[in-house]
Write a structure and sequence with these properties.
The complex is a heterodimer.
Chain A: H1 2-16, H2 20-27, H3 31-38, H4 46-56, H5 60-64, H6 70-80, H7 88-94, H8 96-125, H9 127-152, H10 158-191, H11 200-210, H12 225-229, H13 234-253, H14 256-266, H15 270-277, H16 281-289, E1 297-302, E2 307-311, H17 329-335, E3 341-347, E4 354-364, E5 374-383, E6 392-394
Parallel strand pairs in A: 3-6
Antiparallel strand pairs in A: 1-2, 1-5, 3-4, 4-5
Helix pairs in contact in A: 1-7, 2-3, 2-4, 6-8, 7-8, 9-10, 11-13, 13-16, 15-16
Chain B: E1 4-9, H1 13-25, E2 28-33, H2 39-46, E3 50-54, H3 62-70, E4 80-84, H4 89-98, E5 102-105, H5 110-122
Parallel strand pairs in B: 1-2, 1-3, 3-4, 4-5
The chains are: A alpha+beta, B alpha/beta.
Chain lengths: 421, 123
C-alpha cells in the first residue's frame, strides 16, 4: 500500500499548493517523515493517515481504496509483451486515465490476437470446412486423372471411354456442388458478423456483467432470449443459454426471499445453504454469486482445472486465460471432492485486500458405473472477516505474480524473473 | 510382362478406377481395397510389390494401416506411397514418422504417379 498512498498524498498536497513542512506540522509529524512517506519509503496508516486526511481534506479510506484491479490489468498487459512492469502502482496512481488507455489497448490487441487465432482455427479445424474441401479435392483428383486418361490414351475402347465420360460428368457435378456449398458456408459465416474479439466465455461474462451478474427474469422462470440472441458467437449463445437455464433452476429451488433470509441466518456458507434448500453445493455457490446487489466473486472449473466461469470482484485479480494460482482453494477442492475447503487469503500485490475463499468440488456420475466421473469445482470469493490473519498470499497467475519463494510456481514471473528461490 | 503388383487402398471409386486404368496401362497388375479396417489383411493376403495408400479411409486411417504394416516383419520394408487430399505439412510429417516410402498429394499427375511407383520398386 505504501507506494500508492505516498504518491497519492504527494499528488494531493501539490494539487492544493501546500508546502510539505506546513502539512507535516498540521498533521503532527516531522517534515522529514512526511517526505519519506510521500516518496514511499515509509508506510503510513492508522492515526497518522487519518490526520493527514484531515489536513489534506480527504477520507483515509478513499486513499487506501484499491485501484479496481487496474494495476493487475497493467501487469497482465506488460506480461503479454514481456515488458518490465515495475512501478506500475505509481503509474496507476499518477496517471489513471493513461493507465485506462493502456489497458484498453492491451485488451484490444489481445482480442485481435484471439480473432486471428479463431480464424486460423476455423480454417484448420472446422470440420465442415475440412470435409467440404476434402470432398472437393477428391472430386478434382478424379476429374484430373480421368481427363488425363482421355487426353493421353488414343486407343481407348468405346465402352471405357463412355464410362470415363460419365465419371467426368459426375465428378464435375460433385465439384460444382462442393464449390457452391463452400461459398454458401463462407457467406453464412460472414453473415454471423465479424469474428468476435472475445472468447465465448468472455462474451458470456460481458453479458452477465452488463446485467450486474443478476438475471432478474430467472426469478420468474424466464430467460433473456433477446440478450442471448444478441451475443456474437454461437458458442457464447449456447453457454449463455445453459447458464440462464441453470439460473432458472436455481431460482426455483432457492427462491429469492428465502435465500436472502437464509443468508441472514447462515451467512454465505454454500454447504449449509445447499442442505437447507436440498440442492448441490455448486448450485448454492452459483446462486450466491448471482443474487442482486452482492459483491461475491465466483470461479468455477472443470476436472482438468480449466476455468469455466469467472465473476471477478475488485481487488481479486482473475486471469483472462489459462489457469489461476495453484494456492487457490479451488484446486485443493478439486483434489478433495465433496469436502469444504476454505482459506483466508491476501492478494499478492499492493494494496493487499483480504478475502475469504470457500471452495467445493462436486462429482457427477451422469451414467453410473463404468464411465468417467465429471468433476466440477467452484470457489466463492467473499470479504474476509476481520480478525484472523491471512493464511496465504495468492496471486492471479504465476506469470504476473510477484511472490518469491512460492513452491507451487509453474513459470517465472515477469515481475521477478524467477521460477523459485 | 508386368511392372509389378500394386495394391490400391482407396475408398473413392472413381479415383480407384482411374488409377486402375493408368497403372494398368503402365504395365502394373492392379488390385484394390476400399476399407481401412481390413486393409492390412488384404495386403498380407495379396502380397503386392507396392501399396498406394489413401490417408483418410473408413474404418482405420492410412496412418493406422501404415503403422500396422511397419510393425510386422513381412511388411516392414514394403514400399508404401501415401496418397492424400490432405497435403499439409503435419500430415506429411506424420506419414514420414510412421515410415512412409513416398508421399503424394491429390490431385496428382498421371505421369508423375507412374514414374514415382516405378522408382519405388526399382530402389
Amino acid at each position: 500500500m505504501k507506494l500508492l498512498l505516498g504518491t497519492r498524498l504527494r499528488e494531493r498536497r501539490l494539487a492544493l499548493g501546500r508546502k510539505q513542512g506546513e502539512v507535516a506540522a498540521a498533521a503532527g509529524i516531522s517534515a522529514a517523515y512526511l517526505n519519506l512517506i510521500e516518496f514511499n519509503r515509509r508506510a503510513v496508516a492508522g492515526d497518522v493517515l487519518g490526520r493527514l486526511g484531515d489536513v489534506l481534506g480527504f477520507a483515509a479510506d478513499d486513499l487506501a481504496a484499491t485501484d479496481g484491479g487496474l494495476a493487475d490489468e497493467l501487469r497482465q498487459a506488460a506480461a503479454s509483451v514481456g515488458a518490465d512492469a515495475g512501478q506500475v502502482q505509481e503509474f496507476v496512481a499518477r496517471f489513471p486515465a493513461w493507465a485506462d488507455v493502456l489497458v484498453a489497448q492491451a485488451q484490444r490487441a489481445a482480442g485481435l490476437e484471439r480473432a486471428v487465432a479463431a480464424l486460423n482455427d476455423r480454417i484448420s479445424h472446422d470440420p465442415h470446412l475440412s470435409a467440404t474441401l476434402h470432398d472437393m479435392l477428391s472430386a478434382a483428383t478424379a476429374v484430373r486423372a480421368t481427363a488425363g486418361i482421355l487426353a493421353e490414351t488414343a486407343d481407348i475402347d468405346a465402352p471405357t471411354r463412355s464410362r470415363f465420360h460419365q465419371t467426368l460428368a459426375a465428378e464435375s457435378e460433385r465439384l460444382a456442388g462442393g464449390a457452391q456449398a463452400l461459398v454458401a458456408y463462407l457467406d453464412g459465416a460472414q453473415q454471423e458478423g465479424p469474428v468476435t474479439a472475445m472468447t465465448p466465455q468472455d462474451e458470456v461474462a460481458a453479458w452477465l456483467a452488463a446485467r450486474d451478474w443478476h438475471l432478474a427474469e430467472a426469478e420468474d422462470g424466464d430467460i433473456d432470449t433477446a440478450g442471448i440472441a444478441a451475443l456474437a458467437s454461437a458458442a457464447a449463445r449456447d453457454l449463455a443459454q445453459a447458464f440462464a437455464q441453470a439460473a432458472v433452476r436455481d431460482a426455483a429451488s432457492m427462491p429469492l426471499a428465502a435465500i436472502q433470509q437464509a443468508l441472514q441466518s447462515h451467512g454465505p456458507d454454500p454447504v449449509r445453504l445447499a442442505r437447507e434448500f436440498g440442492v448441490d453445493v455448486i448450485a448454492a455457490c452459483r446462486r450466491l454469486a448471482g443474487l442482486p446487489d452482492v459483491q461475491v466473486g465466483l470461479v468455477m472449473c472443470d476436472g482438468a482445472g480449466a476455468m469455466t466461469f469467472r465473476r471477478p470482484v475488485p481487488g481479486f485479480a482473475l486471469p483472462r486465460a489459462g489457469a489461476g494460482c495453484s494456492l487457490w482453494p479451488l484446486y485443493t477442492a478439486l483434489g478433495r471432492p465433496m469436502q469444504a475447503v476454505e482459506a483466508i487469503a491476501e492478494g499478492a500485490t499492493q494494496p493487499a485486500p483480504r478475502f475469504l475463499l470457500r471452495a467445493f468440488c462436486q462429482v457427477h456420475l451422469p451414467q453410473g458405473f463404468g464411465v468417467p466421473e465429471r468433476r466440477e469445482a467452484a470457489m466463492l470469493i467473499l470479504p474476509a472477516p476481520s480478525g484472523p490473519p491471512a493464511q496465504m498470499v495468492v496471486g492471479p497467475t504465476c506469470r504476473i505474480c510477484p511472490v518469491s519463494g512460492c513452491s507451487l510456481r509453474r513459470e517465472p514471473s515477469t515481475l521477478t524473473g524467477r521460477i523459485g528461490d | 510382362m508386368t511392372t509389378g503388383h500394386v495394391m490400391l487402398i482407396e475408398d473413392e471409386p472413381n479415383i480407384t478406377e482411374a488409377l486402375r486404368f493408368i497403372l494398368g496401362r503402365d504395365g502394373w497388375q492392379v488390385t484394390a481395397h476400399a476399407d481401412g479396417a481390413t486393409a492390412v489383411a488384404a495386403i498380407l493376403a495379396g502380397r503386392p510389390d507396392v501399396v498406394v495408400l489413401d490417408l483418410m479411409l473408413p474404418g482405420a486411417s492410412g496412418l493406422d494401416v501404415l503403422a500396422a504394416l511397419r510393425a510386422r516383419p513381412e511388411t516392414v520394408d514394403l514400399p508404401v506411397m501415401m496418397l492424400t487430399a490432405k497435403g499439409q505439412g503435419r500430415d506429411r510429417e506424420a506419414a514420414e514418422r510412421a515410415g512412409v516410402t513416398s508421399f503424394m498429394t491429390k490431385p496428382f499427375s498421371n505421369t508423375e504417379i507412374t514414374a514415382r511407383l516405378r522408382a519405388m520398386v526399382q530402389a
